[in-house]
Structure formats: C-alpha cells, structure tokens
Amino acid sequence: MDLLASTDITLITLLFLPTKGIGIRLYAQKEKEKFEVNNQVISEFVNDLNVNHMSRIGILYSESL
Asked: What DSSP line would sit under 9-61, residue for residue?
C-alpha cells in the first residue's frame, strides 16, 4: 500500500512539474516585458529632461550674449 501511494505522488509530481515550469517561464517573460516597458518609459523621460535642460542652457547662453 505504501509503495502505491509513493508511486502516485511521483506520478503527480512528474505531471505537475512541466506545467509549473511553463508557468514560471511565462511569468518571467511577463516580468521581463514589464521591465523593458518601464525601462523605455524611463529612457524617454530622461531624454526629455536632457532636451529641456539643454534648451534652457541655450536660452540662458543666448540671453547672456
């Protein structure tokens, strides 16, 4: 009886592990995509800051002439 119970647990484990692996991979892919989107948003924000900063420097420089 104990042998049968341990065999069932092994079978359930073997059946469950591949789907769990797929779930983990899908989760990791979604997290990676979120990170890439956030990284893109941050990059655009920094670029906007740089452009605004440079245009202010240009205005200050032209006013000082």
From this structure: HHHHHHHHHHHHHHHHHHHHHHHHHHHHHHHHHHHHHHHHHHHHHHHHHHHHH
At 13-57, the pLDDT tens digits run 556 666 666 677 778 888 888 888 888 888 888 888 877 777 777
Give SS3 for 4: helix
The predicted model scores a pTM of 0.43
> How far apart (Å, rounded) are the C-alpha atoms in residues 14 and 38?
37
Residue keyed to tokens 């893109």: 40
